[in-house]
Amino acid sequence: MKTLLKNAREQKGIKTRELAQLLGIDQALVSKFENGSRKPTREQISKLATALDINFEELMIAWLKEKILYEIGTDDLALKAMLLAEEEIKYNISYVRKSLSKNLQVLLNEIDELKSKLDNFRQFDSYRIKQALELEYTFESNRIEGNTLTLRETDLVINEGLTISGKSMREHLEAINHKEAIDYIKQLMDKNTSLIEREVLAIHNLILRGIHPEDAGRYRKVQVMIKGSTHMPPQPFLVAKEMEDYFIWYEENKSKMHPIVLAAEMHERLVTIHPFIDGNGRTSRLIMNLILLQHGYVIANIKGDYDSRMKYYQALETAQTSNNKEDFLVFIAQIEKESLERYLSIIQPA
Predict the structure, then answer these.
(1) Residues contacting 211, CB < 8 A, separation 6+
(2) In this protein, which residues make up the domain named Fido (predicted)?
(3) Domain boundaries in the chain?
(4) Choice among 172, 178, 258, 274 that is catalytic
């Protein structure tokens, strides 16, 4: 792979410094990729393929081959282990492909093309753009749950520290808390922290801080019903076990699924368990977006207007009551596609 990278860079007439800028990494790291002393990450492989016009599949195969050889070396039992692994990989691939509809697969392909384009323009990204989009996310996510602050009022509360006349203290706290929760998931993303119970409880604690302090970051102890839904969440004594299974499922599937599907599944599964008295929707959407950000995608911002909210709730209801997640997965994929398109329209040079 190291020869492939170097030859492609030289053929394009790109210097290591220029390639490093395109990838958003140190120049020394590019040199290490080319001399074989350091292996790129999966995300960096995607960026390298785009920047150097290398066939992604060809580069990915070369990367995986080297990764496998590094792990198994020349052990006498390596070939036998490879044969067993081959059968399991074939089974997993077959299972994943069968579980995705043609419509969803087309959407995922379009999303990954958009992400690849976005990766080429990361250098035009800025703190101000992210700040504005995160403000919109806070506004929309709270609006879904009934918060009546406008986008401008949300900005004044978060960034100017102002109090809006006629709006409740809860609505002010929801805006402030959600902004802090976004900052927290960005910290988790930067640290590449795995999703564990402690982090989910910490996110929920931020969401309900000062609103329901006795319930913030704690699983519910009473039975709840979801307004407007026929889905009945599990009894409170089952919540801890359901959440344990939730994290086990994540660990077993996080490397098998497309990140969009994984993020949507983790959202749906959490909100279906409904482990908290309040704040389940906002926490579930934050978990979903943490996973998306960790994989290099952008925040999927579900709008809070009536039509968008109804489509969202209906897709969730179908997933929860008919064991058919297709509508919800497609809904989330479409939201992510639209979010990527908008992000690109903002940062892409004219």
Answers:
(1) 170, 173, 174, 177, 278
(2) 195-334
(3) 2-99, 104-347
(4) 274
The tokens for 6 are 């170097």
pTM: 0.74
- Of 2.30.110.10, 3.20.20.60, 1.20.120.420, 1.10.3290.10, the CATH number of 104-347 is 1.10.3290.10
CA 39 to chain centroid: 24
Average pLDDT over residues 203-208: 98
274 is an active site residue: yes
Alpha carbon distance 43, 104 (integer Å): 22
Selection from 72, 82, 5 nearest residue 38 by Cα: 5
Average pLDDT of the chain, as a whole number: 90
Rounded-to-10 torsion of CA 112, 281, 101, 95: 90
Q: What percent of the chain has pLDDT over 90?
A: 60
Q: Give the C-alpha separation, 230 to 333, whole Å.
A: 25
Mean pLDDT value across residues 146-164: 97
* CATH code at 2-99: 1.10.260.40
Q: Of the ranges 39-43, 100-104, 195-199, 265-269, which one carries the lowest mean pLDDT score?
A: 39-43
3 state SS of 160:
coil
DSSP conformational letter for 119: H
- Among 258, 297, 301, 334, which Cα is nearest to 122's? 297
Which residues are CB-contacts of 113 (< 8 A; sequence separation ≥ 6)? none
Rounded CA-CA distance 117/334 in Å is 17
Nearest CA to 26 out of 16, 13, 12 is that of: 16
Residue, of 151 and 52, whose pLDDT is higher? 151
pLDDT (0 to 100) of residue 96: 52
pLDDT at 165: 97
CA distances from 284 to 35, 71, 289 (A): 43, 36, 9
Rounded distance between C-alpha atoms, residue 264 and residue 290, angstroms: 11
